[in-house]
Amino acid sequence: MGNPHDRIIPVKICLSEVAALNFLIILCIGVFFSGCENGGTASGGGVSEAPARGIFFPSDSYYITGGKNQQEIFQDLFMLLEIDRQTGTDQFPVVQEIVMEYVREKEYGRLINFLNSWIAEYPEDPYTAYYFLMIAFAYIQQEAYPVAAIYFDIIIKNHPDLTVRGESIHFIALNQLISLVTNPEQLIGYYEALISRFPDKMDLGLAYFMLGRAYEQIGDWNGAIQAYAKFLPYYGTVIPGFPDAYTYAKQLVDFDNSPKDWTFENLNILLNAIKSALDTGNSVRLRQFRAKVNFFARSWEQEDEDNAGMAEFNFSDFMRGNRIHYAAQLDSESNANEAFLRTWGWSQYLSIWYFYFRKIYFPPDPEIHGRWEWAGIYYGEKF
Q1: Cβ atoms within 10 A of the Cβ of 302, count?
Q2: Is residue 262 part of a domain?
């Protein structure tokens, strides 16, 4: 197993993708709820009304904005809000329309202040999770992404779920959080919540792979390998920024499940064993020295690919009647982590083979990590 960090491209799921698109569709079209259902741990068939208190905002307050017509709209809405308070009517539809007016006017600062003040005035309002969602949305429009993440996190940790036109607010918040947050410990919690709570609403292959990456980042290799093992059945899943995700995960999982009895303490010991087998023409010994998982044999032009079936590779078919030679020195492109040995005399069609050796990168097992393995063969002369 070579060091994967030399070729890993950090994955960042941008806000313009599916989760963000759903988020904007739900929040920005300006339609009223046909109903808002309590989710998560909430119980009961309905919702309680927000407590009635004094007039929330005077008509000449900071919250009246825009041109004359727009100011009249806001004045009417705040008047309706007071009427609903006095009559004990549910105030949410008016609050939601005020919020949508701020969205239409792109008055995100006033939207944030209005909803924060409302939440402070009515802390028991059953729609608080929705208000926090709108605050987070406003911060996204202002490109204050870390602040938006704080509000999404508050929704997940402190408020029961709500369903808005068939869409879970917790699901929206979690999807935004995996796009906004870089802390791997937080990402683990968010991905695990998505997987356990919303398995039918997401790309499980992508989620399991990204969960494995997050576990890697904190050094929890057991967690990483378990996540990668769950990712493998989702063959063909596209991981943005990581085109060889399946190969990487499969190699790590297969290596973890193997006996690892072909590894050598250092490169010199491995080379001496290989050369001895070649000198004596001992194909059985040579076969014993190669890696038993993830071993490859391909031309230099071929891309990395799944090497299933390499266990049947038989050196005796190529060594019988041939004297195999090898270079006195390793190839000049060899380094501290990988090495190439040129050999020739294998067959009249493909006489030259380069043996490829690499230092094992496998932190889960300190006794194996840093040892060497014969990992593959390249056919033909190097370019």
Answers
A1: 11
A2: no
Considering the domain architecture, whether residues 179 and 305 belong to the same structural domain is answered as no
Residues 176 and 230 both lie in one domain: no
Statement to judge: residues 253 and 278 lie in one domain:
no
pTM: 0.78
User: Coil, helix or strand for 264?
Assistant: strand
Q: How far apart are CA 31 and CA 238, in angstroms?
A: 34
Tell me, yes or no, whether 22 lies in a domain: yes
pLDDT tens for the 383 residues of the chain, in order: 665 444 333 333 333 344 444 455 455 433 333 344 444 433 333 333 444 444 455 444 567 766 777 777 888 888 888 787 777 778 888 888 888 888 988 999 999 999 999 999 898 999 999 999 999 999 999 999 999 999 999 999 999 999 987 899 999 999 999 999 999 999 999 999 999 999 999 999 999 999 999 999 999 999 999 999 999 999 989 999 999 999 999 999 999 999 999 999 999 999 999 999 999 999 999 999 999 999 999 999 886 654 544 546 688 888 888 899 999 999 999 999 999 999 999 987 889 999 999 999 999 999 999 999 999 999 999 87
Contacts of 38 (CB under 8 A, 6+ apart): 44, 47, 126, 160, 161, 162
Task: Report if residue 31 sits inside a domain.
Answer: yes
Location of structure tokens 């050999």 = 343
Residue 225 is part of which domain span? 185-257
